[in-house]
């Protein structure tokens, strides 16, 4: 093997090279980023994780935030209700950002409840007022504000 520090063949590993204090730093290493649009390195020239760099978003800030205050819970859904069905039913009241129907993992059938997130709170309120008690797929829907998740 050839030592990366001294370039000599020998019975030592690079980390144990007796000449490592005398060797010049490798030319291929650069403190500067390869491209101009890359994040700037820290002042000391050490690696900084992208999440810890100046201006970086933290944890939950990186994911698009759900507007849980605009979320509606729908219960008493039939077993064959799917997310496109909920979207079709609720989009008449306004822009829907997300639909979710709870599915039983074993049977693949609906568990009887779901959630609809609206872009605007007024649209969600209108949907609750119109669809609570509405007959859908031979069942009477219960539509109410979703309670926020406990962290």
TrEMBL record:
- Example GO molecular function term? RNA binding
Residues in coiled coil = none
Indicate whether Oxidoreductase appears among the record's keywords.
no
Print the keywords alphabetically: RNA-binding
Q: Where is the composition biased (Basic and acidic residues)?
A: 51-71
Is the keyword Endoplasmic reticulum in the record?
Answer: no
Where does the RRM domain lie?
70-148
- Which Gene3D superfamilies does the UniProt record give? 3.30.70.330
Name recorded for this polypeptide? RRM domain-containing protein
Q: What is the lineage of its organism?
A: Eukaryota, Viridiplantae, Streptophyta, Embryophyta, Tracheophyta
């Amino acid at each position: 093997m050839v030592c990366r520090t001294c370039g000599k063949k020998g019975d030592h590993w690079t980390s144990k090279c007796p000449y490592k204090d005398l060797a010049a730093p490798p030319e291929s290493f650069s403190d500067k980023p390869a491209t101009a649009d890359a994040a700037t390195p820290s002042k000391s020239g050490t690696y900084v994780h992208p999440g810890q760099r100046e201006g970086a978003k933290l944890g939950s800030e990186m994911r698009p935030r759900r507007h849980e205050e605009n979320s509606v819970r729908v219960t008493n859904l039939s077993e064959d209700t799917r997310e496109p069905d909920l979207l079709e039913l609720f989009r008449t009241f306004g822009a829907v950002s997300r639909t979710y129907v709870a599915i039983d993992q074993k049977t693949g059938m609906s568990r009887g409840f779901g959630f609809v997130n609206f872009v605007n709170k007024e649209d969600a309120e209108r949907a609750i007022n119109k669809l609570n008690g509405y007959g859908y797929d031979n069942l009477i829907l219960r539509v109410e504000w979703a309670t926020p998740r406990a962290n």
